[in-house]
Amino acid sequence: MTETTTAMQQPLFNKIVIIGLGLIxxxxxxxxKTKQAVETIVGIDNNPDMLMDGQTLGVIDEIGTIDGAxxxxxxxxxISVPMGAIDSIVSQALPLxxxxxxxxxxxxxxxxxxxxxxATTDGKTPTNFVPGHPISGTEHNGVRAGFATLxxxxxxxxxxxxxxxxxxxxxxQTMWEICGAKVATMDISHHDSLFAATSHLPHMLAYTLVDxxxxxxxxxxxxxxxxGGFRDFTRxxxxxxxxxxxVALLNKTAILEMLAVYRxxxxxLTADIKNxxxxxxxxxxxxxxxxxxxLL
Amino acid sequence: MTETTTAMQQPLFNKIVIIGLGLIxxxxxxxxKTKQAVETIVGIDNNPDMLMDGQTLGVIDEIGTIDGAxxxxxxxxxISVPMGAIDSIVSQALPLxxxxxxxxxxxxxxxxxxxxxxATTDGKTPTNFVPGHPISGTEHNGVRAGFATLxxxxxxxxxxxxxxxxxxxxxxQTMWEICGAKVATMDISHHDSLFAATSHLPHMLAYTLVDxxxxxxxxxxxxxxxxGGFRDFTRxxxxxxxxxxxVALLNKTAILEMLAVYRxxxxxLTADIKNxxxxxxxxxxxxxxxxxxxLL
Lengths: 296, 296
Hints:
By secondary structure, chain A is α/β, with parallel strands linked by helices. Helix content of chain A is 49%, strand content 12%.
């Protein structure tokens, strides 16, 4: 065993501003603090409780607002508000952020975020903006729901544009790697259709099931006799309704496409059941089981 | 502390025959053995591996077949085969089982099981038959997947018929209580529509989703980027395809009814997304979240 001495190291980042101290924003803050990767984290949120809690919990160092001083000399500004608020945040904040500051976001669909930037900049996407999407979350929300290991060993997809500056890209990639994420890159339209399939559609289906059952007269009894399978299947229906309303509307094209595919498949299963087509039903279920088992 | 001496007690049941040593059958055997509630468990299965494993694991005491000797002097015969096999099992076994032996089953839908009995007895349901349905399971199957605590604190629904003997009913109820289950009773048609909603429909939806995605050309990538929500949502798609094919066909009417309700709700959500009806989308999601959160 050799004795090692650790010199006091300067954190990699001097100042990071997080707009939106929800599950994702506050978890990034916690992860970066845990790794001692940042000197100062400034939190901005339209809900004063989130800011107070953020400061009390030591998640942020300073409370900021959308103004020049809050963004001054920031290495990175992270936009982690619900998707429906991005338009308004970008139009207010973008003119106040220096071209030397890297901007990124965490939204579940990327085209609408790029559109929000373009709307503010007469069609040109700023070269310092790196669209991002961490593939992690829980059904809980708010600053208290966050935790430092949320991104550990999870994918984080970045969808740089041709105009995106490569230094900005490296900065955001490094930030996510410090948070424990495995960074992948993808083009925007591919991202938006991929996650419509794997994430957005399941949320639509789970919400629809629970909503449908909750409308039934015997709902008390239905939920009373719900077993473990039902609980797991519907966990994502406990997710933030605002966030998912926004995803539904802001990744509309890709989600409608997947809903149409799903409806077609469900109609085929329904026909197979009606026609007592045991072979076809079993083949579907077996194909699904094989694919699902391979996930593990 | 007082010293207590436990007298050697006679087990409550002398002999129990379990036809079908899968997840449920073998878990009943384990639970009854753990509680020392039975002298001898006879296992019957058309798969010799299940019987060998069952004996090696100590889950059963004897290997039986569908014959008079196997059923002789049994307190209870439990039919825990896949639903599609019940017809044939009942027609072979019922004539060999004494009226003094209680018969029960564990199928997820009850009318078709009663019909199978009636088909064998010229329309009369034997008074010693108590239809049952333990509300527990996992996505695994086979004798090795079972465990003694599977039914602990879970519901078990019995659906006695007007003709069911009350002593037989008490015997089955006692057996389930020994296994740790909370017994509820319900009429058959109510049972079948309730579980079509809370269990059968979710399985149909999960299988359909995974099957639909597994057919897509980019399925590798879809599953690669699947997050925790997807894994939970689709866990039940790893369930036994044979079992669920049988449920789909043998609770057909109630399942088709629920599929129609679901399709209608999904069409409404689709229309709301198409029409950018943010208020309606949020209301649905919020209603679902409230109901789902109340489950916990």
